[in-house]
Amino acid sequence: MKENFFRSMTWLHTWVGLLVCWLLFLIFFAGTISFFKDEITYWFEPETHTVTHQDNRLAKQRQQINYAVEQLQNKAADSSSWRIYLPEPRNPLYTYSYAEPKQPGQRRAKFTETYLDPTINEEIAPPRETKGGYFFYRLHFDLHYIDVRTARWLVCLASLFMLIALITGVVIHKRIFKDMFSFRKNKGSRSWLDAHNVSSVLALPFHIMITYTGLITLIFMVFPYPAQTVYEKGLQQMFNEASPIRARVESSDVPAPLVSMNTILDQVYTKSPDADIGFFFIRDANKESSRVSVYLNTGKEVVDNGAAFLFSGSTGELLAEQGKDWSASARFYDSMTALHAGRLASPLLRWLYFLCGIAGCAMIATGCIMWAKRLRERLKPQQQAGVGLKLVETLNLATLMGLPFATASFFIANRLLPLEMVARADKEILVFFLAWLAMTVLAIISSSKRQWQLAAWLNALVCFAVPLVNAMTTEGNWISYLLTQKWTLFCVDFGFIIAGSLFILQGKKLRTASKKVSTRRFQKPKDLKEQQG
Amino acid sequence: MHSQSIDAVPSQRPKNVFKKRSVSISYRISVFFRFIAAIFGGYVFTSVLISLLAILLPLNQLDSVLLTTTLSVFFYSCVFIWVFAVKSLKRVWITILLTTGVQFVILSLIKGWL
Fold first, then answer.
1. Which pLDDT score, from 0 to 100, does residue B8 have?
2. CA A235, CA A448: separation in Å to the nearest integer?
């Protein structure tokens, strides 16, 4: 569209990047945090912090399943759905739950959950009502307060733009290796360009992988057409063929006693002797149409849909099995979702995922700041900034500083909101968005360097407040976590201390920068959110 | 990542969209239609292409669907970038409409829709 290919790609890179950068920042930011979704949920439920990891986790699974089924028989023999979640390396608890009868107008039945301490096999008080890390997980592809389908289409479009920006970014980049090592400090927008290059190039394979595979996770919503052309009944038929264990049967009312779980478990352990069972679902227990599905954990394999078995609950017969004889295409597709979700990541790899995610946030942030800086530098001395430039500057401040602020406030809300509050989980989320709104108002008032500085101080304040409030409202604090080696809790608290320190650094840098009123327009490449660990 | 273009021609940078007066209405309209071509044209083109491939590939049903659907994003991005790489907007639209049309006719003949 421009005079030459290179120019066209430069233009395209700038505009696809700028158009969606704030939405992308939200997606990357929330997505990066959700790599630690389980750990954050654990931090959010201090009632469970006394539970310790059990020894011989695998050896106890049979007994735990039998115990839970026994309890469910007593409590909810005619519920349509039972679910048992066994302890796993990232979560010491085990829970069982059953579906309440559906109320009219409800899309999904509500589940009543019971939490158990596996070491003593006793119930513990249900933890406070909270969404925890799950909130960030949903936020990064469902957004919030808007229709889920619309949100997902928006997220897909933004991801496509991201992919285009990445590809064109590589195309217009002539010195990819050299730029890895060049950082020109205190050179205005040139420094921002270098920061943008470094954060992009260092983690480039990750950026491309995570964007492409992210689109793949929602691909059947975007492109259902091949399935619809090939299969008579479209997507549903394809899914049934792809994973027969998910096929639904009509519920019958004919009563039939549930077989002993040992009959089923014996078959599982014969097929897969060192099975690590993740969850265990029973539908229509005590009816003829009863189905038992057993899902195994995937461990470190690059597989998202791991091995799973479907049994008849009334006869104990094995009906279907998944995870054997995958074809190359099926593996290709499945490994993509596996790579994106990173469930396979052991602690070290998980941290690498997290750091790359932060690099992604930094890449997006430096990109949109650089755009505004460029235009500012090009303004003539008495020239007024245009509407577009002002809008971008406001959105930059509101998003880049607002999201860390909202996140820290969300963590504080979890500790400070009264426990007996109605719809407490939603109130926590409301605090998140109110905090973000507050930062947006701040940005609308002005987006000058002074305002950035104020935002940095505020962010530092809330970040330091998190471990402080935690120490005052719960039994533990970050020093006791260190002494008792509760690394998950320690890392969350310590993550906020690091983030707070970075914001102080940023504030100081901004102060020295704004004192020199000179022509030098420069801020330290903002250390983006070390939001939590 | 735009350092090269700045270094090369500092004085004659391409028109900046935010310097209002220097951007004509026709330029804005052409940019708008290019985005339409890239987003919607690319989408329809990709949809028809992968549906056709899913039928033509010598694989079983499930495999061909999974493979083509997984590759869809790749095709989509290629078309998207191509739309902006070509100089003439008219050529972009004609190419997209023609190729999509031809593929659609072939697909319809195979499926017996026509």
1. 39
2. 51
Q: Distance, in angstroms, between B24 CA and closest chain A CA?
A: 15
A491 occurs within a structural domain: yes
Residue A464 within any structural domain of the chain: yes
Measuring CA to CA, which residue among A227, A225, A243 is closest to residue A235? Answer: A227
- pTM exceeding the 0.80 threshold for the entire prediction: yes
Closest residue by Cα to residue A405 from A362, A363, A375, A441: A441
Tokens at A107, concatenated: 């899309």
More confident residue, B100 or B15: B100
- Among A225, A228, A363, the strongest candidate for a mutation testing the B interface, having the largest count of B CBs within 10 A, is A225
Write down the mean pLDDT value for chain A: 86
- What residue in A sits closest to B35 (Cα-Cα)? A16
Cβ contact B5–A8 (<8 Å): no
- Name the residue among B1, B60, B73 with its Cβ closest to that of A173: B1
Check pLDDT > 70 for residue A249.
yes
Closest in B60, B61, B81 to A164, CB measured: B81
Sheet holding A81-85, edge to edge: A122-124, A111-117, A94-99, A81-85, A277-283, A291-296, A308-312, A318-322
Question: What 3-state class would DSSP assign to A516?
Answer: coil
Q: Where are the beta strands (DSSP E) in A5-103?
A: 81-85, 94-99
- Domain residue spans of chain B: 24-111
pLDDT of residue A90: 82
Contacts of B39 in chain A (CB under 8 A): 157
Give the length of chain A: 533
* B18 interfacial to chain A (CB closer than 8 Å): yes
Taking contacts as CB-CB distances below 8 angstroms, the residues of chain A near B63 are 327-330
Tell me the per-residue pLDDT of A167-224, one tens digit each, with 9 for 90 and over: 999 888 876 666 666 677 767 778 888 888 888 888 899 999 999 999 999 999 999 9
Quick check: A253 and A41 in contact, CB under 8 A?
A: no
Residue with tokens 């750990």: A39
Q: Which residues in chain B have Cβ-Cβ distances shorter than 8 Å to A376?
A: none
| Residue A35 counted as domain residue | no
β A111-117/A122-124 pair status: antiparallel
| Domain, as residue range, for A530 | 386-533
How many domains is chain A partitioned into structurally? 1
Q: What is the pLDDT of residues A119-128, one digit of tens each?
A: 877 888 888 9
Q: Which helix (H) or strand (E) holds A296?
A: strand A291-296
Q: CA A351 to CA A348: how far, in whole Å? A: 5
The per-residue DSSP string of A396-453 comes to HIIIIIHHHHHHHHHHHHHHHS-TT-TTHHHHHHHHHHHHHHHHHHHHHH--SHHHHH
In a domain, A423, yes or no: yes
Residues of chain B with C-beta less than 8 angstroms from the C-beta of A167: 77, 81
| Chain A neighbors of B90, CB-CB under 8 A | none
Q: Whole-angstrom Cα distance, residue A98 to residue A111?
A: 5
